[in-house]
DNA sequence: CCCCTGATTGTTATA
DNA sequence: TATAACAATCAGGGG
C-alpha cells in the first residue's frame, strides 16, 4: 500500500506526519530494538552496550558516498528496478571495480564527513559529560 | 499509519 | 583485537 511517504517527503497538509525518512528510517533504526535484527544472521543479541541517547549518526562510508551517486544513475538506467538490494549489489560490484584513484574522491568526502562527525561527537561528549 | 527487512561495504564503537 | 551494529535507500509486507 505505499503509504504516502513513498518517495520521501510527501508533505501532508498538517505537519509532516511522515517525517522525512531521515528521521525515522535512520533515526529509529538504531534507536529501536536492535534485538530484532538479532534474529537475523547479522547482529547478535547484545544486551550490554546500551545505546546512547544522543549518539550522533555515523558518517557514511566512502562506499555510501559512492552509492548516493550510483543510485541516481542506476535508477536512470533501471527505473523499473524497485529493489534496494539490486542497487546494493550493483553498487558493490561497481565499487570493487573502481580503483583507488577513483575511490579517492569518495574517500575524501567520507573523510570530511568524519571530521564533521567528530565535531558532533564533541558536543555529544560535552552533553554526556 | 508506522516499523521492519533486504543488500552492499565501510567505519565507528564497544567489550 | 575482534565482533557487533549501523550508515542510506525504496518499496512492500506485517501489525
Biggest β-sheet description: none
Number of domain modules: 2
- What integer is the average pLDDT? 66
CATH structural architecture of the largest domain: Orthogonal Bundle
What percent of residues adopt helix (DSSP H or I)? 55-70%
Folded structure, characterized:
The model is unreliable at 1-47 (pLDDT under 50). Helix content is 57%, strand content 0%. With 129 residues, it is mainly α. The protein is globular and about 45 Å long. It has two domains: 1-50, no CATH class; 52-128, High mobility group box domain (DNA Binding (I), subunit A, Orthogonal Bundle). The structure holds a DNA duplex (15 and 15 nucleotides).
Topology:
Layout: H1 21-31, H2 35-38, H3 62-77, H4 84-97, H5 100-128
Helix pairs in contact: 3-4, 3-5
The chain binds a DNA duplex (15 and 15 nucleotides) through residues 1-8, 17-18, 21-22, 24-26, 28-30, 32-34, 36-37, 40, 42-44, 46, 48-49, 51, 55, 57-64, 66-68, 71, 82-93, 95-96, 110, 114, 117.
Q: Nutshell version of this structure?
A:
The chain has 129 residues and is an all-alpha fold.
Q: What attributes characterize this protein structure?
A:
DNA binding; DNA Binding (I), subunit A; HMG_box_dom_sf; 2 domains; DNA-binding; about 0% strand; HMGB_plant; globular; about 130 residues; mainly alpha
Amino acid at each position: 500500500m505505499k503509504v504516502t511517504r513513498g518517495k520521501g517527503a510527501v508533505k501532508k497538509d498538517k505537519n509532516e506526519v511522515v517525517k522525512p525518512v531521515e528521521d525515522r528510517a535512520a533515526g529509529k533504526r538504531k534507536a529501536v530494538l536492535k534485538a530484532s535484527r538479532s534474529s537475523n544472521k547479522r547482529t547478535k543479541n547484545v544486551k550490554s552496550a546500551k545505546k546512547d541517547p544522543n549518539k550522533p549518526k555515523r558518517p557514511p562510508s566512502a562506499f555510501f558516498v559512492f552509492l548516493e551517486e550510483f543510485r541516481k544513475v542506476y535508477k536512470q538506467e533501471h527505473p523499473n528496478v524497485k529493489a534496494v538490494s539490486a542497487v546494493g549489489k550493483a553498487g558493490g560490484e561497481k565499487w570493487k571495480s573502481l580503483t583507488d584513484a577513483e575511490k579517492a574522491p569518495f574517500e575524501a568526502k567520507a573523510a570530511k564527513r568524519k571530521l564533521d562527525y567528530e565535531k558532533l561527537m564533541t558536543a555529544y561528549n560535552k552533553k554526556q559529560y
